[in-house]
What does this fold into?
Amino acid sequence: MESRSLGTDLSRRALLKLCVVAASALALPASLGPVMAELAATRRRRPVIWLSFQECTGCTESLTRSVAPDLEQLLFELISLDYHHTLQAASGAAAEEARQQILSEYAGEYLLMVDGSVPTGASGGYSTIAGISNLDLLRKCGDSAAAVIAVGTCASFGGLPAAAPNPTGAREVAGLMDDGQIPKRPLVNVPGCPPIPEAITAVLLHYLVFERFPALDERRRPRVFYGATVHERCSRYHHFAEGRFAQSFDDEGARKGWCLLALGCRGPLTRNACPTVRWNQGTSWPVVSGHPCIGCSEPGFWDRGSFYQALRSQSEQEQPEVSAAERGEALFGDTCIYCHHPGPKSFSTAPKDVPALLRRGTIGAHRFDFTDSQLADLAAYLKKLDGQP
It folds into this structure.
C-alpha cells in the first residue's frame, strides 16, 4: 500500500466539494466541510480488507454506485482496498498473499469491512475461503483491525441467511463479538438489503477523517441515517395523516400516490434514510415507485415477513419501545443538528426551559413547528445530554 496522504491527486476544489457533500450526508454543519478537507489532506490512505461471506454481492453493487465519493475517488484517493473478492485484480494465492501482507504490515491500522452473515454450523464447513472457515477468517482478520464496518443486513443482523430455520447457523458480526467468538473492536452496522451507497461511503469517510465512527444508536447504526423511521420521513406521510390509503396496487389510491400502509408497508417499524437520501443519485426509492417498504434494514425482517399484510392487523408487540429521550434524539437529528452541536455545552438555555422558549416563537432563525409531545421529547433528550435524570 502506498503511504501518500488522502487528497494527493485530488485538486483542492474537488476535495473541498467532496467533503462538503459528505458533511451534508452526515448531517454535519456545512462549515465542517473545509475542516474535513484540511484533515483529509493530511491523512494517508487507509488499508482496507473487505470480507464477503454469506451474501449476494448486492452490498458491493451498492458501493460501486456511490456518488459522494464515487468509486474512483474512494478506491484511488481515500482507501487502499487491498482485498476484495469481487473488485480485486488478484486471485488465488496472490490474493491471499495480499491479505497476509496487510495483516502483518499494517496491524492495528487497517479497516475491516464485512458483508454477509457468518455460518457457524458444521464447524464452519458451510463456507470456506482458501480452506479457512468464514468464522476463522473473520477472527484472524479482526484480531488486529483498527475498526470493523458491517455492511448490509446480513453482516449487521444475520439477514436472509439467518432466517428460520437457519440451517447454516448464520450469525451477525456484533453477536459474535458479544459472545467472545471474535475479537471485540469498534464496530458500526450499516444495514440494508443492500444499504444506501452514500450510507456506506459517508460512514467510511467519517472514520477516515475523524478516526472514529459517527454517533451510533443502540443497534450500532449511525443515527444520521437510521435515527428516524421511514414512516416519519416518507413523502406519502401527509396521505397517512389524512387517512388516505391505497387498498390494492392498481386502485385509484395507488395511482394517486396514497399511503401504502394497508398494503403492508413496514415503514413505521423501519429505521433508514431511503426517503431522504434515496437511490441512484437521489432519483427515487421503493415507496415513490409504488412498492411498500419491506423493512430490510431491521433485524429479522424476513422472518417477521407479512410484507403485504397491513401492520394494524399484526401484533402490537412488534412496535419497538422507544423512550422519550430516544424520540427527542431522533427529532434533534432531523431538525436541530443543522444549527446546533449535539452537546450540552452548546446551549445557553437549560433543557427544562427549551420547550417554553420555542413556544414563544421569538427565535427568528427557528423554522420548525413542534407539537407539545415533540417538545417534551426534545427536553428529555437535552436533559440526558446534560446528565440529568
In short: Residues 324-385 form one domain. Residues 240 and 259 are 5 Å apart (CA to CA). The mean pLDDT is 83. The chain has three domains: 12-225, 228-318, 324-385.
